[in-house]
Amino acid sequence: MLRSSIAPGRQLLSSPARQRIPSQWLSKAGARSRLPAQRFFADSKLPPTDAPTPATPSSQSVVPPQIPTKPTEQGTTSHLDDANTGRFRRFLLYLILTSGFAYGGGVFMALKSDNFHDFFTEYVPYGEECVLYFEERDFYRRFPNASRHSNRIQVTPREEGKPVTIPSNSGLSWTVAKEEPASDVSKSGPHNSAKVHDAQTKTEAAKPEDRNAPVIKAKEDKAAKSAKKEEKPAAKEEEQKPVSLDAPRQPAVAASTIELLQTKDGDEPVVQQLVKTFNDIVTVISADENSSKYSAPVAKAKEELLKIGETITALRDEAKQAAQEEINKAHATFDESARELIRRFEDMRNAEVAQFREEFEAEREKLALAYQDKIKVELQRAQALAEQRLQNELVEQAIELNRKYIHEVKDLVEREREGRLSKLNELTANISELESLTTGWSNVIDTNLKTQQLQVAVDAVRSVVERSETSRPFVRELVAVKELAADDPVVDAAIASINPTAYQRGIPSPTQIIERFRRVAGEVRKASLLPEDAGIASHAASLVLSKVMFKKDGLADGDDVESILLRTENLLEEGNLDAAAREMNTLQGWAKILSKDWLGDVRRVLEVKQALEVIETEARLQCLRVE
């Protein structure tokens, strides 16, 4: 980046003063690399140029106009090549740095995580070598003296061209080995040195895994000695006489060994550990040539160990017996507690049964008394009704007798006056009928007038509700209907059922309802695939999938969102708002939440229409009553 910025600067300094205009055509890479108020310095001074020094301008000198020269194609091409080279270098540098950081991070994660270690060493090139190198470095850092142990086995590399030879006398032989003379234990040696014993004790204390090393070493030494003893006589006999396969074998010489300890109490861990330790000691002593000297102490130790095993077994049996006694006592205590608990439970149950029986008897007595009181009240009411019925019958009979008497009197009077009184009565009756008819017709006319006015007011409300293209309030029309109803409870109840918001602000027209339904249907289709507990990802997925869903045509059957929307739209086009609202009310989840406002508007429209229908029906009923 620094070089690409210095190169154009050098060209500008080496060019004459009048040829600075072509610097405007620098490459975009050089222009981007130069920041405002940024200075660059060259590593070496520029060579002196032979360009003439421009004259200092004065007030009298005429400055010729500067004509910008066109940049040459070669200069533009060189700048483009430099820019491309710089981009490639930066890309290569960033790629190397990114790869190095990624590789180093992979090695670090492989040292920290076992799962990533397996993946990195198996699939990344040279990943296993890098991880092993850093693991060795970490091991040597933690254990700097690990490579300086003197007891490490030096493995000499085997020559590739040298053949492997096996001696003729190597291996086992069929002859019996002879025992060598036993060594004297009383002689001075490492076994009599306390320092050596202390060193061995420290070594064994430092390394618990090497405690059985003497036993293993003694077994190996014994096997090696027996093999050597078998080899030497076998070689001598082979030299002295030939081997005959038909000759009988000589009996083997019995080796003097100490018998290992065997106990019947093998299931006790302490006894097993003692027997194992003692058998290891016996094995070490048996490996010695003078093992017969230690047979008496070993036998005594065996007896002591057997006694100890018997003592441990006796203690274990006593402990088992004591534990069994405790368990038996606990069982007896538990049985006694269980019997006591059962006895208490029986007492409590008997007490509860007695209490329930007393409560039952008390409730039964209360019910019997209440039933008797009820029967008494019913009898009193029946007696009162019978007396009242009897009195009514007596009154009816008295009225009937009085009517008969009046009728008989009238007959007698009419007979006496030759029928004049009857004519007067008929005339009076006709006059009364005329008066009643006149009064009734006036009431009918008033009622019809009120009914017609009420019908006109209802039609005015309906025209405002159904024929207006926008939402208009109809408070005045509704007040007129209420005044003309003359405190009719049915009309008052119908008006009270209308939401105040509906007649104060108006209700949407059918066109507005259909347009709003189409907008709501689009939003419902977007949320048709959402579950109830959907998140942001579910909303985005439902929005994308709703774009590719196919719309159904015709009469669609089914409970899915698309079928419900299609049926609702058909019902709205037919003008059946009630059925359309019922269809939309069957939606579930987010679809129902999104259509909640639209359902509220439709519900207000239906409430207003239902109230108007009730008022119109009441007006018709009033007309029928008058007729």
TrEMBL record:
Entry-linked Pfam families: Mitofilin
Entry keyword set: Coiled coil, Membrane, Mitochondrion, Mitochondrion inner membrane, Transit peptide, Transmembrane, Transmembrane helix
GO biological process terms on file: cristae formation
Principal cellular location given in the protein's record: mitochondrion
Transmembrane segments: 91-111
Chain residue ranges for the region called Disordered: 1-82, 152-251
Membrane topology, from the record: Single-pass membrane protein
Function according to Swiss-Prot or TrEMBL: Component of the MICOS complex, a large protein complex of the mitochondrial inner membrane that plays crucial roles in the maintenance of crista junctions, inner membrane architecture, and formation of contact sites to the outer membrane. Plays a role in keeping cristae membranes connected to the inner boundary membrane. Also promotes protein import via the mitochondrial intermembrane space assembly (MIA) pathway.
Protein name: MICOS complex subunit MIC60
Location(s) in or outside the cell: Mitochondrion inner membrane
Gene Ontology terms: cellular component: MICOS complex
